[in-house]
């Protein structure tokens, strides 16, 4: 059956990174488990997949990632204690993560890059299109980016990447795409004609950067097996997608959904802190008091300093 006639039913979340930018916090705690307000970052990502209609999730993990498995497993002793106390609100919160999705795990073993992590998912994914969600990018639940990408893949086949406009002086931090219009009414969908992983400053094909959401045709696995290490000595998913973009006969075309919604980058310390503040301000239970405190804090910080 052609890949564009098959529904995407599985998601892959690469989670084998060491999180060195957050040391020493990540010495013993996976970076994916760092809290964003009161939920670990990884739970937001799984919840996004579920909202998009995918409830089969494979996490590609590495050493010291046991906490991920524990978080999405049942915590019987804790649940029993909360039940005895009659604290059904917290009991519901604790059970929510274990009931979110059918979560599976595979170890990457050698840290050979994102492309290799995706390749590790092949036995679980099989020969159907699948989604890949990176945990550093949190997409606001009000913006249905992944659902839109799944729709585009079903309609047009091949693979779909998410692109977002970035400042010209930041293109070297991302994979960047060369694109062409499709000539139809879908103004948020473009054809990808080339991809460059972290181009040298001033050489990017556009200011449209790949962010951490993909819907991939299963042919990507065969290409990844033949993709040599690229930038950083790692097997780059961008390099494999570039081959598909340049030669669609290998596994269908590559399309892009241009995202103009709310994205929270938790990839470095400053952006992580900003994400926490933004999401806390959005919360109905925390937002009013937190915003009032924040305004007062900023006013005091910006006020005159004592001599």
From TrEMBL:
EC number: 2.7.7.9
Pfam family membership, one: NTP_transferase
Family from the record: Belongs to the UDPGP type 2 family.
SUPFAM superfamilies per record: Nucleotide-diphospho-sugar transferases
Class of enzymatic activity (EC top level): transferase
Origin superkingdom: Bacteria
InterPro entries per the UniProt record, alphabetical: GalU_uridylyltTrfase_bac/arc (IPR005771), NTP_transferase_dom (IPR005835), Nucleotide-diphossugar_trans (IPR029044)
Domain Nucleotidyl transferase, first and last residues per copy: 10-276
Recorded catalytic activity of this chain's protein: alpha-D-glucose 1-phosphate + UTP + H(+) = UDP-alpha-D-glucose + diphosphate
PANTHER family: UTP--GLUCOSE-1-PHOSPHATE URIDYLYLTRANSFERASE (PTHR43197:SF1)
Protein name stated in the entry: UTP--glucose-1-phosphate uridylyltransferase
A GO term for molecular function: UTP:glucose-1-phosphate uridylyltransferase activity
Keywords, alphabetical: Nucleotidyltransferase, Transferase
Gene: galU
Native species: Streptomyces salinarius
Higher taxonomy: Bacteria, Bacillati, Actinomycetota, Actinomycetes, Kitasatosporales
């Amino acid at each position: 059956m052609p890949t564009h006639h098959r529904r995407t039913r599985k998601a892959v979340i690469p989670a084998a990174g060491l999180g060195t930018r957050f040391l020493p916090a990540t010495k013993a705690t996976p970076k994916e488990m760092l809290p964003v307000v009161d939920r670990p970052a990884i739970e937001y990502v799984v919840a996004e997949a579920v909202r998009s209609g995918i409830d089969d999730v494979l996490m590609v993990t590495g050493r010291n990632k046991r906490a991920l498995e524990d978080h999405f497993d049942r915590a019987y002793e804790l649940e029993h204690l909360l039940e005895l106390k009659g604290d059904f609100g917290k009991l519901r919160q604790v059970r929510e993560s274990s009931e979110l999705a059918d979560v599976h795990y595979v170890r990457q073993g050698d840290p050979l890059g994102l492309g290799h992590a995706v390749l590790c998912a092949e036995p679980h994914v099989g020969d159907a299109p699948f989604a890949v969600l990176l945990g550093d990018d949190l997409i606001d639940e009000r913006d249905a980016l992944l659902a839109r990408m799944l729709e585009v893949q079903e309609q047009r086949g091949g693979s779909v990447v998410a692109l977002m406009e970035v400042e010209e002086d930041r293109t070297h931090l991302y994979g960047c795409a060369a694109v062409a219009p499709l000539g139809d009414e879908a103004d948020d969908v473009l054809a990808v004609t080339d991809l460059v992983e972290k181009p040298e400053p001033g050489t990017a094909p556009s200011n449209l950067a790949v962010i951490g959401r993909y819907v991939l045709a299963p042919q990507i696995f065969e290409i990844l097996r033949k993709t040599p290490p690229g930038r950083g000595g790692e097997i780059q998913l961008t390099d494999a997608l570039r081959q598909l973009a340049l030669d669609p006969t290998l596994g269908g075309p590559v399309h892009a959904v241009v995202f103009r919604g709310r994205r929270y980058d938790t990839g470095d310390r400053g952006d992580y802190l900003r994400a926490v503040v933004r999401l806390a301000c959005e919360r109905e239970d925390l937002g009013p008091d937190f915003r009032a405190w924040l305004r007062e804090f900023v006013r005091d910080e910006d006020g005159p300093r004592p001599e």
